[in-house]
Design goal:
22% strand, 7 helices, 7 strands, globular, seven-stranded parallel sheet, alpha/beta, 170 residues
């Protein structure tokens, strides 16, 4: 099936995206995001606040080993993580429904930039202070009675679109 080994993954060119998990409660969601980051060759996963870290049987259950391939780091405070990422030249994008947000289909991935996308808590979303510290908010349009996706689903949708633009162009 052409799957990479962990070593081959570590040596591969990565998508210039860091995923930041802002206080994610569910270890299954954390594991699922690890797995999605592996699939999209994401550079790093940043776990913040109450977000659990490997090793964890619950994370492993959905990550299926991606917690070994995807580089990750933990910060007790999301704002500290964002400050460091900004110093490293990342554009900070909160994935959140907010006044003035950019709809995902209107977002244009600039191949000359690096992006940090912030995914929020399953109930409360991205913390307001984190939204305020972001360069922009990206929103996925939704047309049903619900106005949110599960955080792991949201991560998959956003990463696929960004990866698609990075890898294949517009």
């Amino acid at each position: 099936m052409g799957r990479k080994t962990v070593l081959e993954f570590k040596q591969s060119e990565k998508t210039p995206i860091v995923v930041v998990l802002d206080n994610i409660r569910s270890l299954n969601n954390v594991g699922s995001v690890f797995r999605t980051c592996d699939a999209m060759l994401i550079d790093k996963l940043v776990l913040c606040g109450i977000t659990a870290c490997p090793p964890s049987q619950e994370i492993h259950k959905t990550a299926l080993g991606a917690e070994d391939s995807v580089d990750w780091i933990y910060y007790d405070d999301t704002l500290k993580a964002l400050a460091e990422l900004r110093q490293q030249g990342y554009v900070i994008c909160s994935i959140e429904q907010a006044h003035g947000s950019v709809m995902l289909q209107e977002f244009h991935f600039d191949k000359d930039k690096k992006y940090a996308i912030v995914m929020g808590n399953e109930v409360k979303g991205v913390q307001q202070e984190v939204v305020d510290a972001s360069d922009l908010c990206i929103e996925i349009p939704q047309y049903g009675t619900k106005h949110s996706f599960n955080v792991s689903v949201t991560t998959g949708i956003v990463l696929w679109e960004m990866f698609r633009q990075w890898k294949f162009g517009e």
